[in-house]
Amino acid sequence: MSSLQEQLLKAGLTTKQKARQANTDKRRKQKQKKSGAKVEASLQEQVQQDLAKAQAEKQAKDTALNAEKKAALAEKEQHQRILQILQHHQIVVENGELAYNYDFAGKVKKIFLDDQTQQALVNGRLALCGLDDVTYIVTSETAAKLAELAPEVVLVKHEKQAQQEAVEEDDPYADYQIPDDLMW
């Protein structure tokens, strides 16, 4: 008994090349069936590994995003705390006649003070602090506390000075005192 393939060849309905191709396809399918379990298992392992990798990447991304949000929130809280301290401890000067120049964010600004406030600022009892383009006059203790939180907030803070510094005996210019608030 001859196979169907041989009968088709004799009848001229197919060619030898098509018959060989059919046999090759048949062998491949049988081979895949035998090793199909192994291929399927390795495919499942690969899918699980890809899934675990994707979950790990998502977890890392979420962790980084949470850390960024926490940092932004902490920065905002710090800003609000500094603003609250400045507003609560500020000293308001009205009718200032003397101009006092200071540096604020790279620009020279001018504030008008009365004589007593200017002397306190020059002697180090008061300080100038700035936040959000607003200048605040505060005590030197408040400025020291703010310098611990954010040093860039303190604009002008002179060291406390004694009322009269000792004059050297050999100083030839002892008779010519230079005022601290000398304006050019």
Task: Please tell me about this protein's structure.
The protein has about 180 residues and is an alpha+beta fold. The protein has two domains: about 1-80; about 90-155, no CATH class. It has four helices and five strands. The chain has helices at about 5-10, 15-90, 115-125, 140-150; strands spanning about 100-105, 105-115, 125-130, 135-140, 155. The strands form two sheets. The chain has a three-stranded antiparallel beta sheet. The longest helix is centred in the N-terminal third of the chain and has 74 residues, at about 15-90. It is rod-shaped.
What is the number of helical segments per DSSP (H or I, 4+ residues)?
Answer: 4
- Helix percent band: 40-55%
What is the strand arrangement across the widest sheet?
A: 4-3-5
Global morphology: rod-shaped
Number of discrete domains: 2
Give the total of beta strands: 5
Helix and strand pattern: HHEEHEEHE
The chain-level mean pLDDT equals 83
- pLDDT < 50 runs, ≥5 residues: none
Overall SS class: alpha+beta
Beta-strand portion reads 15-25%
Distance between the termini: 124 Å
Radius of gyration, in angstroms, nearest whole number: 43 Å
Largest sheet: 3 strands, antiparallel
Tag the structure with descriptive keywords.
3-stranded antiparallel beta sheet, 4 helices, 2 domains, two-stranded antiparallel ribbon, about 180 residues, 5 strands, about 55% helix, about 15% strand, alpha+beta, single chain
In short:
55% of the residues lie in helices and 16% in strands. With 184 residues, the chain is α+β, with helices and mostly antiparallel strands.
